């Protein structure tokens, strides 16, 4: 009997969930969870919202408790970095030189916030937001009357902008592109997002190029490419994350936009698996390789890979899904929007909207919604079920607010 443990490298959301799922699914062997942060595994969505607004304590983000890991005999090495993997020997090397054997290895290495490679990026007050420690450092700076400048009009930057405005900060968002969250959102939803932020007092500048951060020890202004200086007290750089693939690449594993895995989440080495933000996997809708930085992806891949590690052969089939809260509105995306042949728009009350993306055979491939509060959640859930059904759907029924999406699941459209 093999006495080497299953080792999980990366104690974030996906890694923590996988460790707990292995025990839930009956694995009784040795299990080691290694993370480079000092914290328990935790979920990240609250970092830009509840933690900044002081509406939730940091420990509410934790996945499991220290007592639970101890009771389940999940050994944890915190504040520990893995420096190398030797697949031929089935062992890893830690930063202090120790080597540890593994039976199977799971890479849940996540990603790191991208730095702005500009003069002055090292000034105090130029902040990133990726970890609990980042959120703890940012929160005291978001006092009423303080001037926050957000670099990047993606979801993290906009969520922080919304939180800061609610705390009474003066907020400016600088986005290099011609619309907000352009890589993820269709133009109509981007426009609604822009209108909401401007209506709530956020100054948003599109097509904006930054030359440098200025200040004497601490940031006091951002210099734009045209020489204009924008005064500020704090800068949040929110320009995406860089997946942590270096460890896998150095070990000879296949790497593209992430650590490449098959439908079982297994890498090019049969004894090594990968999940989460650093993982590039086949999309269940299109079959094309993709990498997702979402809560659901970390949660569901963590659960699925536990089954794969224990010998299950079923493919990872969870649909892509994402949400973001912006002030008192929310947006959700499900499935794949990019490869659709046709987009159908359904207006909703209070300036809400649903967009349905159909392929050439009129099968639903993806859906995107915008609305007040949680008003679109049920419709997006029904859209997910319609995507899974694979049924051709009448565009007229999808576009008609009086037509029940639930009835389309039964093949009867109320038109």
UniProtKB/TrEMBL annotation:
Matching SUPFAM superfamilies: FAD/NAD(P)-binding domain, FAD/NAD-linked reductases, dimerisation (C-terminal) domain
Ranges where the FAD/NAD(P)-binding domain occurs: 6-302
Entries under InterPro entries matching the protein: FAD-oxidoreductase/Apoptosis (IPR050446), FAD/NAD-bd_sf (IPR036188), FAD/NAD-binding_dom (IPR023753), FAD/NAD-linked_Rdtase_dimer_sf (IPR016156), Reductase_C (IPR028202)
Domain of life: Bacteria
Cofactor(s) demanded: FAD
Segments forming domain Reductase C-terminal: 321-409
Pfam families on file: Pyr_redox_2 (PF07992), Reductase_C (PF14759)
Name of protein: FAD-dependent oxidoreductase
Organism of origin: Vogesella indigofera
């Amino acid at each position: 009997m093999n006495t080497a443990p299953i080792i999980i490298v990366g104690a974030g959301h996906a890694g923590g969930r996988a460790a707990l799922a292995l025990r839930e699914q009956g694995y009784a062997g040795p299990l080691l969870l290694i993370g480079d942060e000092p914290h328990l595994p935790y979920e990240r969505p609250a970092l830009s919202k509840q933690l900044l607004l002081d509406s939730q304590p940091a420990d509410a983000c934790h996945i499991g408790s220290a007592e639970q890991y101890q009771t389940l005999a999940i050994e944890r090495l915190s504040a520990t970095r893995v420096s190398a993997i030797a697949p031929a020997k089935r062992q890893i090397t830690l930063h202090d030189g120790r080597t540890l054997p593994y039976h199977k290895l799971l890479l849940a290495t996540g990603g790191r916030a991208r730095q702005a490679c500009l003069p002055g990026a090292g000034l105090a007050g130029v902040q990133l937001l990726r970890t609990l420690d980042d959120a703890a450092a940012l929160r005291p700076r978001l006092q009423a009357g303080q001037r926050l400048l957000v670099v990047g009009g993606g979801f993290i930057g906009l969520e922080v902008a919304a939180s800061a405005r609610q705390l009474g900060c003066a907020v400016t968002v600088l986005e290099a592109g011609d619309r907000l969250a352009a890589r993820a959102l269709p133009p109509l939803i981007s426009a609604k997002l822009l209108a909401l932020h401007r209506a709530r007092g956020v100054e948003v500048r599109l097509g904006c190029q930054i030359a440098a951060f200025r200040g004497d020890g601490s940031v006091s202004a951002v210099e734009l490419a045209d020489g204009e200086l924008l005064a500020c007290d704090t800068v949040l750089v929110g320009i995406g994350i860089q997946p942590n693939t270096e460890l896998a690449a150095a070990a000879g594993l296949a790497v593209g936009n992430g650590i490449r895995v098959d439908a079982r989440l297994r890498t090019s080495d049969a004894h090594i698996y990968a999940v989460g933000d650093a993982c590039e996997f086949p999309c269940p809708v299109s079959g094309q390789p993709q990498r997702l930085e979402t809560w659901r992806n970390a949660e569901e891949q963590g659960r699925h890979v536990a089954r794969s590690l224990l010998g299950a052969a079923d493919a990872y089939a969870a649909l892509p899904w994402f949400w973001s809260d912006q002030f008192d509105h929310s947006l959700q995306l499900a499935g794949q929007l990019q490869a659709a042949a046709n987009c159908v728009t359904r207006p909703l009350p209070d300036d809400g909207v649903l967009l349905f993306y159909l392929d050439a055979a009129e099968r639903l491939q993806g859906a995107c919604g915008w609305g007040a509060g949680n008003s679109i959640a049920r419709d997006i859930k029904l859209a997910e079920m319609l995507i899974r059904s694979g049924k051709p759907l009448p565009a007229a029924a999808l576009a008609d607010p009086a037509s029940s999406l639930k009835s389309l699941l039964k093949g009867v459209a109320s038109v």
